[in-house]
Design goal:
alpha/beta, Heat Shock Protein 90, Rossmann fold, five-stranded antiparallel sheet, five-stranded parallel sheet, 22% strand
């Protein structure tokens, strides 16, 4: 994918941080779907930090040549090579974080919000790690937060994004209704956006109990259920079995951020059951849906 050009010169502090600012952004070698999810997760997290839903979220891009002394100060930076990195920064004027919260910001299942499961920023960390990138985090309590992601620039020129796709792959999944069941609000928000971008009608449920209620009421219009494996009210397995009691032929995609394991292998071996690992992007999601839904 190709990053947009930076629209401003680097600040004095950026220029003095052992880096050379570049006038335009080179291409990034990476997965566009995962980078899109990285942006969505971070913006959603920023929006939830705004006090009384009021404030500003700013996105900016640029490119720096990062030397060893600067990389060492980044999360994940100590394992990276010096070189040119394209960066994306998401800043907000929200509530900010104290030092203890900053230290745990990217931990799985850590969240300062009641009822949240804290997987959104943990998924972001995984995406950045998968792209051999780094993270710079600045936040002060009551002063907002700035998160900047550094992804290594690609050496080769970007290829035509349309190349290599078949006509079938490019066809949207139109007129399909998907029930997305997950007790992580950020997963529901991001998943709904990704499914709608594929042309699907999306119903969401914040847990297994609610998912069963929706399926019982609307099973004749639901083509597939995407089901989280680790929910607080009903497990994915219990919800799957209850769904099959309502409709034995229900098509279900099980999803989890954990390895599949023995339970996942056993359930995925059932008829009309598929597996989708988290964090997933638009491409992974589309691939799973095309397997689960008849042409």
């Amino acid at each position: 994918m190709t990053s947009p050009s930076s629209s401003r010169p680097a600040s004095a502090s950026e220029q003095s941080s052992n880096s050379t600012w570049l006038a335009t952004c080179p291409p990034v070698k990476g997965d566009p779907d995962q980078v899109r999810q990285l942006i969505l997760n971070t913006v959603i997290n920023a929006s939830e930090s705004l006090v009384a839903n009021r404030g500003t979220i700013t996105l900016s891009t640029g490119a720096d040549y990062c030397e060893r002394s600067r990389l060492d100060h980044f999360l994940l930076g100590t394992v990276l090579d010096e070189g040119t990195y394209v960066w994306l920064k998401v800043s907000d004027t929200g509530s900010g974080m104290d030092e203890a919260t900053r230290d745990r910001a990217f931990e799985p299942f850590f969240s300062t919000r009641f009822g949240a499961r804290g997987l959104g920023m943990a998924a972001v960390m995984g995406i950045v790690r998968n792209h051999a990138g780094a993270i710079e985090l600045h936040s002060e309590l009551g002063q907002g937060t700035s998160v900047r992601f550094f992804l290594p620039a690609a050496e080769e020129e970007p290829v035509d994004a349309s190349g290599g796709h078949t006509e079938t792959e490019d066809q949207p999944l139109m007129e399909r209704t998907i029930l997305l069941v997950d007790d992580d609000e950020s997963v529901l928000k991001v998943g709904k956006l990704l499914l709608e971008s594929l042309g699907c009608t999306v119903l969401t449920a914040g847990g297994g109990v609610r998912g069963l209620e929706i399926y019982r009421d609307r099973r004749h219009e639901i083509d597939c259920v995407i089901l989280d494996m680790t929910m607080s009210d009903l497990t994915g397995e219990d919800t799957l079995l209850a769904l099959r009691h309502v409709e034995p032929e229900v098509r279900v995609i099980l999803s989890s951020g954990y390895p599949k394991g023995e339970t996942g292998d056993r359930l995925a071996a059932m008829a009309n059951v598929w597996w989708l690992a988290k964090p997933y992007g638009r491409g992974n999601l589309e691939e799973a849906l095309r397997k689960a839904l008849p042409a």
